Amino acid sequence: METISSRQNPLCTHIRKLAASGSYRRDRGEFLCDSPKLLEEALAWAPESVHTVVCTAGTPLPPLGDPVRLVQVSEDVMRSIAPSQTPQGVLSICAMAQRPAPEAPLPGKRYVVLDGVQDPGNVGTILRTADAFWCDGLFLVNGCADLYSPKTVRSTMGAVFRCSVWRGGAAETAALLRRSGIRLYGAALRSDTLDIREMDCGQPLALAVGSEGRGLSEELLRLCDATVRIPMSEHCESLNAAAAAAVLLWECARNC
Q1: How far is 190 from 212, CA to CA, in rounded Å?
Q2: Mean pLDDT of the 21-27 span
Q3: In this predicted model, what pLDDT tens digit does every residue of 80-90 receive, in sequence order?
Q4: What phi and psi, each to the nearest 5 degrees, are found at residue 54?
Q5: Which of 77, 84, 129, 209 has fewest C-beta within 10 Å?
Q6: Distance between CA atoms of 34 and 158, rounded to whole angstroms?
Q7: Does 237 have pLDDT greater than 80?
Q8: Residue range 68-73: average pLDDT?
Q9: To the nearest whole number, what is the mean pLDDT of the chain?
Q10: Closest by alpha carbon to 209, among 223, 196, 220?
Q11: For residue range 113-167, what is the model confidence (pLDDT) as tens digits?
């Protein structure tokens, strides 16, 4: 085990950049996990992705493979490099998944398309929910939050290591779904809107969810095969994006 005592150590600088900059993460092909739970999930589902583990003295760690660099730092140094306000004593540097661009026909039967969802907590929570309800992948279009930002990764609770995620344009994503025989349903109100309870959840489908403030973009709405709504009390206008996705995915899972 190495020991680092200086906040200015190159590894500390690298960790701060991984936490702060999406372009730096993409250039390096690495991201930061900020909790013992995420380290456990990485080792369980993508052990080859774990490059470096940084911990404070006395923090229990799961067994690590030989290629993993293990570094101990003081509480003070950990506070200076951890992205969270209350560090849990373990940081992990992991390699980003190198997933090939999806091609038709897509092999799965259920997907989620996020349209302009910029809150990293929502993106991470929706990925976690998609993973829980047997989705085959998630598409991010129109400026969604960075999948590998610390807050997004933390919100996935490990789903980032299990569920396939692709980033692309709305038109190309809709075309891919169409070529794969997968109908695209948007969560929005339109003349063809169905109550979610009326949707045929046994067929291959993709559910599109927009941001809380703007909903689905006009571009993606035009590309949807139909739209669906969640029945709710008259005095409520909408749900949080993550909550809406959870209801839609649960209804699909319940009726498939």
Answers
A1: 17
A2: 98
A3: 999 999 999 99
A4: -115, 130
A5: 84
A6: 11
A7: no
A8: 97
A9: 95
A10: 220
A11: 999 999 999 999 999 999 999 999 999 999 999 999 999 999 999 999 999 999 9
The number of residues making up the chain comes to 256
Map out the domains of the chain with their CATH numbers: 2-95 (3.30.1330.30), 110-254 (3.40.1280.10)
For CA atoms 147, 210, 167, 136, the dihedral sign is positive
CA atoms within 13 A on the CB side of 229: 15
Query: Which of 227, 224, 252 shows the shortest CA–CA distance to 130?
Result: 252
The b-or-e profile of 13-35 (16+ CB within 10 A means b, else e) is ebbbbbbeeeeebeeeebbbbbb
What six digits make up the tokens of 203?
């067929």
pTM given for the model = 0.94
What is the C-alpha separation between 166 and 62, in angstroms, rounded? Answer: 30
Whose structure tokens read 């990485």? 42
Taking Cα atoms as reference points, which of 186, 182, 245 lies closest to residue 217? 186
* 40: its two tokens: 């456990």
Q: Distances in Å between the alpha carbon of 199 and those of 31, 85, 92, 176, 184?
A: 38, 43, 42, 21, 12
d(CA 125, CA 241): 10
Query: Which of 34-38, 68-72, 221-225, 235-239 has the weakest average pLDDT?
Result: 235-239
Answer whether 145's CB lies under 8 Å from 117's CB.
yes
